[in-house]
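F.,

This is the one I mentioned.
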């Protein structure tokens, strides 16, 4: 099977969970024998040496914008189709690639199914004009959670009978192991327990709430530290907010964490805290769980599908900060409970959320859609 995937990015270093998903899925599909015709803007980085990948370039030197895509994506698809006919046209984004992929199929008379992938809907007045039309027009749609499928119907009124839920995967390097002493020393974490956040520092992650919660937790656990790991546009404003609340002594900021060090940073946490306002899957939560860390997280989006409340941690309404405070206090004070919940999380990820399962299920979707398309059951 040969898949053509016009793409915004699959960078080896990224702060985007969606881009991490795309990079890992496509690389593993290539290793599994699926031929991937990947199209990127000139200069966009990609992993080197991935088997069965052929990298093509758009006629632009920067990342795609959705309003530019119709001008550059169809001609690039046409060049690939002339050189190497493919079986499936893949749209990794409903807005950025979806309209152009559908237009290219029609304009070029490509006899292939269009399969789209989708994470979640961000608020936008364009959703009903762009995303809904793509959802209704593609042959099949793959999402990472039941929440993402429900959201399409509830917010767009779109059809969902052709939507498959395939949970994302977690790499085997995310596993329980002792924390690195040099990292603890680098961040001056002391001997007490560490509450960890790891992810992009952007508005959707709801990090001001985390600092408000920690301002109430820190006086009860003076030896504990809050480690906010990751980079992003809110880093300096979060530092300033932490100082304003008098938290400089108990909060540490790492800045950007390289991909190669992510797993070691998850192992620094005794508790993972994730107050995000919206997640289509919640890859950071799954990686923390795989690392054997108990989690206190928002109940928004797909997170309750990952984290079983009371079994691997606690899900909390972010409109009730007192719940976050209570659950954090409980876990910071109870090491045996942390160990029990963390072990349950690691077992759950091994059972449900490893990449092998995701790749196999995604490949089956592509094969089934292709067989149905060729059999005339579009």
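My design for it:
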């Amino acid at each position: 099977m040969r898949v053509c995937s016009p793409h915004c990015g699959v960078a080896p270093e990224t702060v985007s969970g969606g881009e991490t998903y795309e990079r890992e899925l496509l690389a593993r599909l290539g290793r599994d024998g699926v031929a991937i015709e990947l199209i990127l803007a000139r200069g966009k980085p990609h992993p080197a040496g991935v088997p069965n990948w052929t990298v093509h370039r758009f006629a632009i030197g920067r990342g795609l914008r959705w309003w530019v895509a119709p001008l550059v994506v169809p001609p690039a698809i046409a060049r690939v189709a002339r050189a190497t006919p493919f079986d499936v046209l893949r749209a990794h984004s409903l807005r950025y690639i979806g309209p152009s992929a559908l237009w290219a199929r029609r304009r070029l008379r490509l006899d292939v199914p269009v399969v789209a992938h989708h994470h979640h809907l961000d608020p936008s007045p364009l959703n009903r004009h762009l995303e809904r039309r793509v959802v209704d027009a593609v042959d099949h749609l793959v999402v990472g959670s039941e929440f993402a499928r429900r959201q399409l119907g509830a917010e767009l009124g779109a059809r969902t009978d052709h939507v498959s839920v395939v949970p994302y995967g977690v790499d085997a390097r995310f596993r329980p192991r002792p924390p690195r002493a040099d990292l603890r020393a680098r961040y001056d974490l002391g001997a007490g327990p560490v509450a960890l956040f790891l992810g992009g520092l952007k508005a959707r992650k709801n990090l001001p709430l985390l600092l408000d919660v920690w301002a109430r937790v820190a006086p009860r656990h003076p030896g504990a530290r809050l480690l906010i790991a990751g980079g992003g546009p809110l880093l300096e404003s979060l530092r300033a907010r932490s100082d304003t609340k008098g938290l400089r002594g108990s909060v540490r900021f790492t800045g950007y964490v390289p991909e190669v060090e992510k797993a070691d940073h998850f192992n620094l946490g005794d508790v993972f805290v994730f107050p995000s306002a919206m997640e289509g899957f919640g890859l950071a939560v799954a990686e923390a769980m795989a690392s054997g860390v108990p989690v206190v997280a928002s109940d928004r989006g797909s997170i309750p599908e990952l984290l079983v409340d009371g079994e691997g941690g606690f899900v909390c309404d972010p409109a009730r900060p007192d719940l976050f405070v209570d659950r954090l206090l409980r876990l910071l004070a109870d090491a045996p409970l942390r160990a029990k919940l963390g072990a349950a999380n690691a077992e759950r990820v091994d059972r449900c959320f490893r990449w092998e399962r995701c790749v196999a299920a995604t490949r089956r979707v592509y094969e089934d859609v292709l067989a149905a398309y060729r059999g005339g059951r579009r």
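Residues 2-169+355-374 form a domain with the Rossmann fold fold (CATH 3.40.50.2000).

Talk soon.
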